[in-house]
Amino acid sequence: MGKIKITVLYQSGNGAEWDSPRDKRQDEADYPVEEYLENCGMVHTVSPGKSFKFVTPYFGDWQYPNGIHCNWTFLGHSTCHPSITCDDVDLRDNPECETEYLEIIDGLGGAQRYCGKMKDVSGIKSSRGGRDLFVTLQTMNGTFDREYAGFLCEVRCNDGKVALKDEFPSKHKEDLRCICGYQNKDDRIVGGENTTMNEFPWMAAIVNKGTRSPRCGAAIINDRWVLTAAHCFVLTKLGADQIDVLFHAHTLDMTLREYHADTALGEIGSIRGSGYNLDIVTDSDEKTLRVEVAEVINHPLFNAKYDYDVALLRLSHKIDFSVANAPIPICLPEPGLYQETFQGTVPTVAGWGLPHQDAGGSTRILQKLEVPIIDAQKCQELMPTTLTQRMMCAGFETGGKDACMGDSGGPLSLKDPKTKQWTQIGVVSWGEGCARKGRPGIYSRLTELVQWVYKNTETAKWCRKK
Predict the structure, then answer these.
(1) Element holding 381 (H helix, E strand)
(2) How many C-beta atoms lie closer than 10 Å to residue 287's C-beta?
(3) Contact 162, 123 (CB under 8 A)
(4) What's the CA gap between 51 and 48, in Å, rounded?
(5) H or E element at residue 450
(6) pTM of the predicted model as reported, rounded to 2 decimal places
(7) From first to last of its 466 residues, what are the pLDDT tens digits of the chain?
(8) The Peptidase S1 domain covers which part of the protein (predicted)?
(9) How far apart are CA 126 and CA 45, in angstroms?
(10) Cα 258 to Cα 211, 254, 359, distances in angstroms
(11) Rounded Cα gap, residues 137 and 40, in angstroms
(12) Residue 227 CB: number of other CB atoms within 10 A?
């Protein structure tokens, strides 16, 4: 008889059946624990009619082994708020579930750990209006024998009855000394205008290492992390050791393509963008803060259609927001605002990208442009490819003004007229050319992605909102 393979996670709703070999000793199991671990770290989108089950190794056959660390991510959908229900949880009991546990968190402060024998793990859902859930199984190291069955849990779409609570101290920390999203008082974008020095103090430039030549834009969101676009790294295979992040930068060097210095702006090969003939500026000239990057985390579901186009850069050291000339992080949307369209608003995009789609080099001076939000249905009519719920449109149907190549990863931000604070609502993602008639810019919609951002930056310090 052929080998029966248990996978760590089973998807229902497609006619598949979940099989588990029964009545076997651990040393007779049909699969090694390494095979189980290969499926750890997977990300799954839950939608109506599709559910998932996850289990401890050898569930139903033998006790689970020591030294297991496995995690799963379950992402919701516009019509699905996932919840988790488990058969009786039977794990090794330990004080405060510190060393062995089943953990369910939402990245928003809601969390619960289970250990020992539990019978009330039913209908667990995200807190604060969120919908994504992140699960971890941790078992203790050691050589002792086990007498615990483990668990089998199911994730499905329904309105869970029990929201996660902050049952143990949240890893999220708020720095009460700083406030996010405030501009300094000193008061590649096509058709944009120059910014003043440090006008957007959260703005960051991702540059080739040791240079001032921009690759993409970004924004600082807390004391350790910068938010940008995944395609800046996935499609170019760019690594953390190849880049620096610059804060308090205004005039950069030009990143060149095929160019002709003597052509007028708008002609093929022109490098006559704003500041093209200025003297070279150094980090010390602008009091630029240059920081190395320790890690790049691309959204695991990013694909060739630019869906889930967000990435996080972990800086090599923490930023002290209390020192002179320090950047100021931008605010992020509150969780649970999935229905917010921002219709009727005119946010601002900034970057050092090409001044024209045929330009021979990037714009040297940071540009800004106000771009009205375009209704999702109208935008879909304009664009030739299908837009997902993680995408939003902004720009001008008549063309002439837009973000362009090199602006990728930069923030699309909206100013609250009452508090005067800026919130990042999008990330520059893609478009058909630049500033073409009937082809607006496409941005990653942060209201759909903010839970993933919070989960992956959980040890950082955040500046508070007013």
Answers:
(1) helix 376-382
(2) 13
(3) yes
(4) 8
(5) helix 446-455
(6) 0.90
(7) 233 333 345 555 543 333 443 333 344 445 577 778 887 888 999 999 888 999 998 887 788 888 999 999 999 988 899 999 998 899 999 999 999 999 999 999 899 999 999 887 899 999 988 999 999 999 998 766 678 889 999 999 987 778 887 644 455 677 777 999 998 754 445 556 788 889 999 999 999 999 999 999 999 999 999 999 999 999 999 999 999 999 999 999 999 988 888 999 888 999 999 999 999 999 999 999 999 999 999 999 999 999 999 999 999 999 999 998 899 999 999 998 998 999 999 999 999 998 888 899 999 999 999 999 999 999 999 988 889 999 999 998 776 665 777 799 999 999 999 999 999 999 999 987 676 766 789 999 999 999 999 999 988 999 998 8
(8) 189-458
(9) 15
(10) 20, 12, 8
(11) 10
(12) 29
Which of 195, 125, 180 lies closest to 156, judged by CA?
Answer: 125
**150: helix, strand or coil:** strand
Helix (H) or strand (E) holding 232, with range, is: helix 231-234
Beta pairing partners, 367: 194, 351
E strands, 56-107, are 69-75, 82-86, 89-90, 101-105
SS3 (DSSP) at 465: coil
Q: What does the block give as tokens for 39?
A: 């499926």
Structural fold of domain 174-464: Thrombin, subunit H (2.40.10)
CA-CA-CA-CA torsion for 324, 325, 326, 332, nearest 10 degrees?
130
Q: Tell me the three state secondary structure of residue 219.
A: strand
Q: Which of 181, 272, 255, 177 is nearest to 220 (CA)?
A: 181
Going 109 to 113 to 119 to 122, the CA torsion angle's sign is positive
In the numeric block, the tokens 């921002």 are attached to: 342
Match 């996935």 to its residue by tokens.
Answer: 234
CATH topology of domain 9-163: Jelly Rolls (2.60.120)
Handedness of CA 452, 455, 460, 464 (dihedral sign): positive
Kindly list the catalytic residues: 231, 309, 408
Q: How far, in Å, CA of 357 to CA of 271, rounded?
A: 11
Query: In terms of residues, how long is the chain?
Result: 466
Task: Give the whole-angstrom CA distance, residue 213 versus residue 361.
Answer: 10
- 172-209 as b/e: b if 16+ CB within 10 A: beebeebbbbbbeeeebbbbbebbeebbbbbbbbbbee
Q: Domains of the chain: which residue ranges?
A: 9-163, 174-464
DSSP 336-373: T-TT---TT---EEEE---SSTT-SB--SB-EEEE--E
Question: What's the rounded Cα separation, in Å, for the pair 453 and 461?
Answer: 13
